[in-house]
Amino acid sequence: MEQATYFLFFGLGLSMIIKGSDWFIDSVIWIASVFRIPHIIIGATIVSICTTLPETLVAVTAAAKGVTDIAFGNAIGSIAINTGVVLAMIIVFSRPRIEDPATFVRNGISLIVVIVFTWMMGLLYGEISRLAGVILVGSFAYFIVSNYRQAKKMMHAREDESDRDDIDKSRKNKLIKVLLFSIGISLVIIGSNLLVDNGIEIAKILGVPPLVIAIVFTSLGTSLPELVTAITSIRKKVTGLGVGNIIGANILNIVQAIGIASLVRPIDLAGDPSILPFQFPLTLAIVTCAVVFGVATRNGYQRWHGILIFGLYLVFLVVNLLRENTPILGPILF
Questions:
Q1: I need a surface site. Which of 71, 159, 176, 267 has the fewest CB within 10 A?
Q2: Domain at 2-333: CATH code
Q3: d(CA 327, CA 105)
Q4: Residue 173 has pLDDT above 90, yes or no
Q5: Which one is predicted more confidently, 309 or 37?
Q6: How far is 22 from 188, CA to CA, in rounded Å?
Q7: Predicted pLDDT at 162
Q8: CA geometry: angle at 165 spanning 231 and 240, to 5°?
Q9: Between 62 and 243, where is the model more confident?
Q10: What is the 8-class DSSP label of residue 158?
């Protein structure tokens, strides 16, 4: 009975993070709109930060509790799911064209660079130190400022919707938004604690490292905002938005989530034998394929690109689930 409770509270924590982040993001966007911050600026800065809030708080909570495997696993697992599942789904079902190749290439290269940087930190020092965390958080600040400037240029090129005074500023709505903001952030914080604490216990029950729970299950839940955005972009036929959101979220999973978590406590990358020889290289392969395929063909992504990227994620998933029992890779990695 006690074991079932761990699974129950793990699911409850995940649900609280998902719902809490939804309420939090909605209320933050409303507050920004009240202060007449243009929608395009909100999207480039505030939404980017908030959609990675679940991964960030889970990573920080895990680091504070000394379970840095979960802090790392959730972030790297989210990148793998965002690219190998969400982006692959967009490619297969809509074959999106890259509308702004220059921005896509810049962000794609930035993503590859930060993944390689954290990988090199692991290979050289066995951890992401606080100094490396400072560098990552500095990169996070640069990314947000760069997005802000880019959005400002776009804003001058066209009239922005936020110039219309159509926001409900009634006293009742203000109270509702403040309540949703407070409840939302509280749910995410409490949910993060439930997720980490019960994830550790579930790992013990299943006889697998906490890293696996974070990479496979926790990251799936915290990646739901990106999945919902992708489905919406397919339905509304604005898939460029979905592709851009995924690349941006992936960058923030490293510079925001891992960066801030490593300031709380250095993240050990040498504890689990699979991190350096497997998790990093395959995640990098998935991301690199997505970036190269996006700019290498004139007609945009092809369906086989999405199938191949998804296939790489399946390898990533199967090896993590089976670990020692995986043919060929298992004995080498574990």
A1: 159
A2: 1.20.1420.30
A3: 36
A4: no
A5: 309
A6: 10
A7: 46
A8: 25
A9: 62
A10: S
